[in-house]
Amino acid sequence: MHSWFAWRRSSRLGGPLAISCRRVGGTSDLPISVGALLVQVDSLAPQARGTRVHLRLGNPTTVTLLELTVDVEWGVADEGTERLVRDVRLAASAESATWTESFIDLADAPPGALRVLRFSHAQFGRMTFSP
């Protein structure tokens, strides 16, 4: 069973950044082979024809995680319509025992139209041990 993190636009709140998190505190854990990676959506911003999603990655482990990828699902329409899903390589490594800022770019999903953003299954290519 995969842990997942879902954001949905709330029609009651209005505005392009009016999103609410299903999980308490706005942070979700994604299982990885050495523990868990914490993921928090910080903000959404226009990027070309899509959205740049600014993330904070929490790494409570004693290793720095390099070459991170996360399965991301996103959609601009309501439930029941096609979603885009792909592995996304994160722009930053997750340093040991700290929060790191990173981002992903989602094509064809302007911030005002983004309805669903879901993360599942994180993995890394390499790791280094902290002193």
Descriptive account of the structure:
Mean pLDDT is about 75; it is low at about 1-25. With about 130 residues, the chain is mainly β. Helices cover about 0% and strands about 60% of the residues. Strand 7 (about 70-75) and strand 8 form a beta hairpin. It has strands at about 5-10, 20, 25-30, 35-45, 50-60, 65, 70-75, 85-90, 100-105, 115-125, 125-130. It has one domain (about 5-130): Lipoprotein YajI-like (Immunoglobulin-like, Sandwich). A five-stranded antiparallel β-sheet has the order 2-1-10-7-8, with no helix packed on it. It has a four-stranded antiparallel β-sheet with strand order 3-4-5-9, with no helix packed on it. It has a two-stranded antiparallel sheet with strand order 6-11.
List keywords for this structure.
131 residues, mainly beta, Immunoglobulin-like, five-stranded antiparallel β-sheet, four-stranded antiparallel β-sheet, 11 strands, 0% helix, disordered N terminus
Give the topology.
Layout (H helix, E strand, L loop, with lengths): L3 E6 L9 E3 L5 E6 L2 E13 L2 E10 L3 E4 L2 E7 L8 E6 L8 E9 L9 E8 L2 E4 L2
Antiparallel strand pairs: 1-2, 1-10, 3-4, 4-5, 5-9, 6-11, 7-8, 7-10
Judged by helices, strands and strand pairing, the structural class is mainly beta
Low-confidence stretches at least 5 residues in length (pLDDT < 50)? 1-25
User: What overall form do the CA principal axes indicate?
Assistant: elongated
Order of helices and strands: EEEEEEEEEEE
Radius of gyration: 15 Å
How many beta-strand segments? 11
